[in-house]
Amino acid sequence: MKTPIVRAAAAGARCAPCREGGPSLSFERSCALLTKLDGWSLNEKGRLEKSWRFPDFRAALAFVVRVGALAEEEGHHPDVRLSWGKVALELWTHKAGGLTENDFLLASKVDRL
């Protein structure tokens, strides 16, 4: 069953603009939303993260370019680590100082790439 976040991503919902100091999600809500994503986890900083493996640098770079285009469309930008055959993303909302629904929405959209 699709969650509201996954349904919203599939329906083309966009990340909502955040304001400085806006509210972040509780740990419990973040954990609940996390169970609806595929392969994402919370790191020691409380941020969403996921890694992908690719056959070579070119394929990894192509994925990063697609993620970058999506991030620009959404106005919500992950931290990206690119190395030979591997990409890692870290998501959180800087203005809220933690996770927001935008992070889960973007994660779901990245998974659709």
Can you summarize this structure?
Helix content is 40%, strand content 17%. It is α+β, with helices and mostly antiparallel strands and 113 residues long.
Overview of the molecule:
With 113 residues, the chain is α+β, with helices and mostly antiparallel strands. Helices cover 40% and strands 17% of the residues. It contains four helices and four strands; from the N terminus they run ααββαββα. It has helices at residues 4-10, 27-34, 57-74, 101-112; strands spanning 41-42, 48-53, 79-83, 86-91. The chain has a four-stranded antiparallel β-sheet, with helices on one face. A hairpin with a 5-residue loop joins strand 1 (41-42) and strand 2 (48-53). Helix 1 crosses helix 4. The longest helix is centred in the middle third of the chain and has 18 residues, at 57-74. The mean pLDDT is 85.
Label this structure with key terms.
4 strands; four-stranded antiparallel β-sheet; alpha+beta; 113 residues
How do the strands and helices of this protein lay out in sequence?
Elements (H helix, E strand, L loop, with lengths): L3 H7 L16 H8 L6 E2 L5 E6 L3 H18 L4 E5 L2 E6 L9 H12 L1
Antiparallel strand pairs: 1-2, 2-4, 3-4
Helix pairs in contact: 1-4
Spatial strand sequence of the major β-sheet: 1-2-4-3
Which geometry do the CA atoms define?
globular
Task: Characterize the biggest β-sheet.
Answer: 4 strands, antiparallel
Number of helices: 4
Spatial extent as radius of gyration? 14 Å
